[in-house]
Amino acid sequence: MQVKGLCHLHSKYSHDGEVSLNRLKESLKEKGFQFLLLTEHIHDFLPEKIEEILKECQSLSDEQFIIIPGLELENKGEHFLVIGINELAREYNSLTQFRSSGAIIVWAHPYKIKQDGIERLQIDGLEIWNSCYDGKFVPRWQALKLLKKLRQKNNVLAYGGIDFHRFSHLGGPFLVVDVEELLQREILENLKRGRFFVKRGAVTVNSDGTMRPGQKIKTVLLSPIFRSLIGLFKFGSKILAGLRISPPRKIKEAIRSKL
Ligand SMILES: [Zn+2]
Ligand SMILES: [Zn+2]
Questions:
Q1: Which of 34, 205, 210, 252 has a CA positioned 20 to 30 A from the CA of residue 171?
Q2: Domain region containing 188
Q3: Could you tell me the distance, in angstroms and rounded to a whole number, from the CA of residue 125 to the centre of ligand 1?
């Protein structure tokens, strides 16, 4: 069967997350999702907190919805999602350690794309679509090109994440995974095997980064436009903040929920 879930979410455990895990689960369940891949900022908490997260993910997971615990780490100025952590995570301090414990490593929002030594990175996936940076409508074209380059050496797969911090971030790409049963182990295994695709509306990106020709053209054309719009929105917010003008949050959120 196929199950639908979201990747790259921050709850209140991250300093910039606004929604509790419980509320997040309820809201995603209502929207027809069956799992979420949590990726909390690790620098926000003490290692002891990891145990608390693991416990909460487990107690909120049931036969209808699974929360897979994970982190977002910084390494050489880039961000990496670590999907599927266990109790030993508090002792790890390198991506390699996490990876050998079975976690999936995804290079998040690769927008400072450096070409040096990229092929040496031991990663399982690339976030070719992060709706916070790239918009909700199409993946990032340059990230798809980077994926193609990485795939010449390693089996790096295409992931789509929403970088959720608040409800206006919903509405971006989701993952559809083939599983036998709705279990954490099944979801992780099939993600590793590439038995999934990234989807939003009519846009589908296969786990190997391929798309239908028509959608590819749409992506090449629209990707820079949406990125510019988001850049403009962020720039405008900064300018207003500098002038100490704060537009009503409702308006800001309403604009952001559309982009
Ligand atoms: Zn990040
Ligand atoms: Zn993030």
A1: 210
A2: 2-258
A3: 15
pLDDT attached to residue 257: 75
**What stretch of H or E contains 106?**
strand 104-107
- Residue 234 in tokens: 């962020």
Kindly give the distance from the C-alpha atom of residue 160 to the centroid of ligand 1, in angstroms, as a whole number. 13
CA-wise closest residue to 3 among 212, 246, 253, 184: 184
Bridge partners of residue 70, in order along the sequence: 83
Whole-number Å distance, alpha carbon 44 to ligand 2 midpoint, is 12
DSSP-based three-state secondary structure for 8: strand
Tokens of 5: 């879930």
The 10 Å Cβ neighbour count of residue 101 is: 16
CATH number at residue 49: 3.20.20.140
Q: Give the pLDDT confidence of 150-205 residue by residue, as tens digits.
A: 999 899 999 999 999 999 999 999 999 999 999 999 999 999 999 999 999 999 99
- Look up tokens 């030993």; give the residue: 88
Residue 72 DSSP SS3: strand
Determine the distance separating the centroid of ligand 2 and the alpha carbon of 213, expressed in angstroms.
30
What is the 76 CA–ligand 2 centroid distance (Å)?
16
Question: Cα–Cα distance between 74 and 108 in angstroms, integer?
Answer: 10
Quick one: DSSP state of residue 83? E
Give the number of the ligand closest to the Cα of residue 37.
Answer: 2
Backbone angles phi, psi at 169, to 5 degrees: -80, -10
pLDDT at 218: 87
- Ligand closest to Cα of 107 equals 1
Q: How many helices (H) and strands (E) does the chain have?
A: 8, 12
Say if pTM beats, i.e. exceeds, 0.85: yes
pLDDT given at position 223: 86
224 SS3 class: helix
